[in-house]
């Protein structure tokens, strides 16, 4: 039994795999409410647009700031906004960070592809 994730804007298959889906209870600094988070996506089905805005944002009590740098995930077929790429995935290396700081500030982290649930049409085969 498989799951097919399609763009809610045009119905294009995004080739996302449930095998790369993070568990619902996984903790991320930027939160995970109302979204699905994947560890891998098919680059050929998406457009990536850099976003750099100076505007206060508050995702969670531990993830906030004034300048937001992230990458927007857009459907390659219609350009519909599907979500964003965050750098708060699992650490890409083992150990404690430089000078004992928290992992997210000193150890490189894998990208997390965060899709808005409302931006996807999900069907189960």
TrEMBL record:
<dbReference type="InterPro" id="IPR011057">
    <property type="entry name" value="Mss4-like_sf"/>
</dbReference>
<dbReference type="Pfam" id="PF24046">
    <property type="entry name" value="At4g08330"/>
</dbReference>
<dbReference type="InterPro" id="IPR045282">
    <property type="entry name" value="At4g08330-like"/>
</dbReference>
<protein>
    <recommendedName>
        <fullName>MsrB domain-containing protein</fullName>
    </recommendedName>
</protein>
